[in-house]
Amino acid sequence: MEKKLIVWDNHYSVGFELFDSQHKQLIEMINELYASFLSGEAHKKAVDIVSEMIKYTDYHFKSEEKYFDKYNYPFTEEHKEIHKSFVNKAVELKEGLESGKVTVSYDIMNFLRQWLIEHIMGEDKKYETFFKEKNIDINEKNN
Ligand SMILES: [Fe+2]
Ligand SMILES: [Fe+2]
Question: How many whole angstroms from 120 Cα to the centroid of ligand 2?
């Protein structure tokens, strides 16, 4: 069986199906990178996987930010800043991999895992109460 770096746990739920499923997708992408790292194939696949991860991360962040903007979520600016700094780091990683200056390592895998889980458990969970108190319907078609 494929070894997973992150296994979804209900504690990670932010209370909305749409965002949970996007987070699950990001977890899968990190697991995919991890699997290629373990197989020794990371150098071949890493750039593609990280590029896809950046694209999906951008899509997910925009998805959250759309709701922040629309409903004047009080932590909008700081949350967007955190998103932006992660994208910058991920792009830096991609460029490092492309140039061959960086190879996938346990440090990089741990950084990705820790960042995503801490972000979900910290910043992302903060919006649950706010959106729930306002009875906001978060779903694909409003997205
Ligand atoms: Fe998120
Ligand atoms: Fe977020």
Answer: 7
Give residue limits of the domains in the chain. Answer: 38-133
Fold topology of 38-133 = Four Helix Bundle (Hemerythrin (Met), subunit A) (1.20.120)
Dist. CA 95–CA 91, nearest whole Å: 6
Residues in the chain: 143
Cα 113 to averaged position of ligand 1 atoms, centre (Å): 13
Q: pLDDT tens digits, residue range 29-64?
A: 999 999 999 998 877 799 999 999 999 999 999 999
| 120 alpha carbon – ligand 1 mean position (Å) | 6
CB under 8 Å to 107, separation ≥6 — which residues?
Answer: none
pTM of the model: 0.94
